[in-house]
Design brief:
2 copies of one chain form a homodimer. Chain A is α+β, with helices and mostly antiparallel strands. The first copy, chain A, is built from 4 helices and 10 strands. Chain A binds a DNA duplex (27 and 27 nucleotides) through helix 4.
Chain lengths: ~210, ~210
DNA sequence: TCAAAAGTGTTGAAGATACACCCATGG
DNA sequence: CCATGGGTGTATCTTCAACACTTTTGA
C-alpha cells in the first residue's frame, strides 16, 4: 500500500481557429516512447495536488495563470506499465492569445483538436474526453468559458468559444441576449476595429 | 515522491426519518482517537480505487450493493498528521431499508444528520459537505435519488428523498408531474396499504 | 364520521427558440 | 459601392411555480 505513486496530469485546453484544442507532449522516455501524452508528472512530497498541477503546467507547458480544476482520479492498477501509479487529472484553460510555448523539459509540445487526437500514452485519451465532457457540461451554468478568452473580448469571440466547446452553431441574437441578461459581462468603452465595423469589447464582470 | 500513501474515504448516505444521514465510525486508533471519521482505508496495491471503496464499504459499513461515485481527491500535505496521505473521496447511497449494521473492525458506527455532524477526524467534515453539495446538484439532472430507495417505492417516498436532500419542501403536484414526465419511473400494479388510502408503487424504469 | 395521506388541473410568468434585416467600415 | 462582420426585436412555445380540493381507507 505504500508502493503506490501519484501523478497529476493536466488537460490544457484552448480554442484555436474555432476548435477546442488540447496540448500534448511527445514523450522521450519509455514507456510509450514517442507517443503523445498529457503534461504532468509525479507529485512531490510537500506540495498539494493543485500546486503539483500548477508546477507541471509551468514546467512542461510554459503557462502560468490559468483556470485550473480537478477532474477525476484514475487508478486502474494496469494503467501504467511501470507499476502502480494513480493520476489525479486536472483540466486547465488558457486564452490562445497567450500562446504557450513548448516547455523546457518536453521535447515536443503541440496542439491537437480535442476531437481528433493522435494515439496517446496510458489512459490519456480517456482523460481528455472526460475533460471535454466536463467543460461542455459546465459551460452554461458557470462562467468557465472566460478562461479561454483574453481580458477584453468581443461577444462574437465569446460565442465562438461556446460553439467550439459545444460543437454546434448558436443563434447570435439569442446568445447575446442570454449572456447579457446573466450580467456576467460588462461592455467597456473600447472598440476593436479590425477592418470591418468595429466591435465593442467586453470584460468579464465581477 | 514515493512516500505518498493513498486512501479512499466514503461518505455513505441514507435517508432516515426525513433527513439525509451519513455513516460515521468512531476511531479506535491514533490520530484522532475517539473522534468520528468516514469509513475508508488504504488502497491495496492490486486493486482499483473503486474496488478499494467497495471493499471498505463492506468491511467497515457492512453494505454491499450501493450506488457509488467518485467525488474528489483531497491532497493537502497537512491533512494527515501521520505524514503524506492523499485520499480519494467517494460517496455512496443506500436505501435505509437495508440498514447497514456496524462492521467488524469498526468499534462504533452510527448515523448522523448530514447537517448536524459531530467533530470529525482529518478533513472529513469538508468531504461530507462536498458530498452533500454534489448530491444536491445531481438530483435534478440525474436519477441519483433512486439509490436511496428500495426497488419498489411510492411517489411520496421519492418526494421525501428529494426534500431531504434539498432541505426544502416541494409541491406535491409539481413534483409528481415532473417525475412522471421524465419517464424514469413506471407504476407497477401493486399498492402499499399502510393504514390509510393505499399508495401506488413505482419502480425505477430502464 | 373523522383523521390521514393519496391523488389530481389550471393559470400565469419566465425562459428558450426560431427567425431576417440594417449598419458601419475598409478596400 | 461592395463585401464583411456587427448589431438588433418579436412571436411562439416550453417549462416552471403557485395554488386547493376530492378520494380512499382504517380506526
Amino acid at each position: 500500500m505504500t508502493a503506490i505513486r501519484v501523478t497529476v496530469d493536466i488537460v490544457l485546453l484552448t480554442i484555436r481557429d474555432g476548435h477546442l484544442n488540447a496540448l500534448l507532449i511527445k514523450r522521450m522516455a519509455k514507456p510509450f516512447e514517442n507517443r503523445y501524452a498529457l503534461p504532468g508528472g509525479f507529485v512531490l512530497e510537500q506540495e498539494s495536488l493543485d500546486d503539483a498541477a500548477i508546477r507541471e503546467l509551468r514546467e512542461e507547458a510554459g503557462v502560468d495563470r490559468v483556470y485550473l480544476e480537478q477532474l477525476y482520479t484514475f487508478g486502474d492498477p494496469e494503467r501504467d506499465p511501470r507499476g502502480r501509479v494513480i493520476t489525479v487529472a486536472y483540466y486547465a484553460l488558457v486564452p490562445h492569445t497567450q500562446t504557450p510555448r513548448a516547455g523546457t523539459d518536453a521535447s515536443d509540445a503541440a496542439w491537437f483538436p480535442a476531437t481528433d487526437l493522435p494515439p496517446l500514452a496510458f489512459d490519456h485519451r480517456e482523460i481528455v474526453e472526460y475533460a471535454h465532457t466536463r467543460l461542455r457540461n459546465k459551460l452554461d451554468y458557470t462562467n468557465v468559458g472566460f478562461g479561454l478568452l483574453p481580458e477584453k473580448f468581443t461577444l462574437t469571440e465569446l460565442q465562438l468559444v461556446h460553439e467550439a466547446i459545444l460543437g454546434q452553431r448558436l443563434d447570435k441574437r439569442n446568445f447575446r441576449r442570454k449572456i447579457i441578461q446573466k450580467g456576467i459581462v460588462k461592455p467597456i468603452k473600447e472598440w476593436r476595429r479590425t477592418g470591418r465595423k468595429p466591435a465593442q469589447l467586453y470584460r468579464f464582470g465581477r
